[in-house]
Specification:
By secondary structure, the protein is of the alpha+beta class. Helix content is 29%, strand content 21%.
């Protein structure tokens, strides 16, 4: 995905038809059609100096500090859903993965696998959504690649994004730092994204619209780290949801965890959809929420900081870390009992991110 201001081609026979045109195999040939797709769509939408260097890589300076890198593939179906689409989701998802180390995201790369026959109007809508999300986050897409596969060998479009960021000095956030006595917090309601996508597939309707929570969380993380530098663990509970994330922390840290059902923030419409579909919101994907673990002495201050941010208004303390040689995650139910929150088995919600 390379183009330059000075060499951008202007001698194409006709401009791309973003209203009625479709992707064909020539768009992945590396020839004139490929260059036109890059020039008239990707370079125009993403529009930054690094991209315009015109190389097969982006060159940039960085500040001192530990570097963080993350990559993620996005295969959501359908491509467009209430509250977002595969485009903004691919930007938010990788920004969030970088931010979960306490890092400030700097740059993104994006790779597209396009299926022959994909309407150019859909592709433009997706790319424009990515551009808006990247600009709003202040994290430019500086390099990338496109490939085209034959009709029937893809699913419209798959997007892989890679991000890098810098961790400020003194910040050490890892999945193996949870300690007995620590508190567990979430930044808001759980299950919104996964259930919004599933409700669309099943054509379910509710009095209140179900929308994805997709959002870039790096500004929330920055305020959290500023107020509580010694956060032990951070993670965005995407595929597999909160239940899977807590099991990951428990295994990495060698501890057990207890959460309280009455403390979990869940929207009523998400609970209703889960009951109707036979799903558990603990395992439903989130794309704009995070889980934090910190020392008990820091928990109230961290909670107040999260609630003061627009992306953490429904934050809650939901449990605590305990000693447990089995590394179990348990939930105290609303009825006074308890249940094991085990690893997700199988595939509860396919193709949601």
């Amino acid at each position: 995905m390379s183009a330059t201001n000075s060499t951008r081609r202007t001698d194409y026979i006709r401009p791309l038809d973003f209203k009625n045109g479709r992707i064909d195999m020539s768009h992945g040939s590396g020839g004139r059609a490929s260059a036109q797709l890059v020039d008239e769509l990707f370079a125009k939408a993403f529009d930054n100096d690094c991209l315009y260097q015109g190389n097969d890589q982006a060159a940039f300076d960085i500040t001192a500090g530990r570097m963080v890198m993350s990559t993620d593939a996005h295969v959501v179906s359908p491509l467009f859903f209430p509250g977002g689409d595969i485009g903004c989701l691919s930007v938010h998802g990788t920004i969030n993965d970088v931010a979960m180390a306490g890092a400030s995201p700097l740059y993104l790369a994006a790779s597209f696998i396009l299926e022959e026959g994909l309407p150019l109007a859909d592709l433009k809508r997706i790319v424009d959504s990515m551009a808006v999300a990247a600009r709003a986050a202040g994290v430019p897409i500086v390099t990338g690649d496109t490939k085209v596969v034959e009709k029937g060998k893809g699913d419209g479009v798959f997007i892989t994004t890679t991000g890098i960021g810098i961790v400020p000095p003194g910040i050490d956030i890892r999945g193996d730092r949870a300690q007995p006595g620590d508190k567990i917090l979430v930044s808001g309601t759980i299950g919104d994204h996964g259930i919004a996508v599933m409700a669309l597939r099943e054509e379910l309707s509710f009095e209140t619209a179900l929308c994805s929570d997709t959002a870039a969380l790096h500004t929330l993380v920055a305020t959290m780290v500023e107020k509580v530098p010694d956060i032990h663990c951070l993670r965005d509970p995407t595929r597999g949801g909160l239940g899977t994330t807590l099991n990951e922390f428990a295994r990495q840290s060698g501890c057990g965890m207890i959460i309280h059902e009455t403390a979990l923030p869940v929207r009523p419409e998400v609970s209703a959809a889960c009951e109707f579909l036979g799903l558990d919101p603990l395992y439903a994907a989130n794309e704009g929420k995070l889980v934090a673990i910190c020392a008990a002495a820091d928990a109230d201050r961290l909670l107040a900081t999260m609630r003061a941010h627009s992306l953490g208004t429904h934050a809650a303390i939901i449990g605590e870390v305990i000693e447990d040689a089995h590394h179990f995650v348990q939930m105290k139910t609303a009825f006074g009992g308890s249940r094991i929150v085990d690893w997700l088995t199988g595939e509860q919600l396919p193709r949601i991110c």
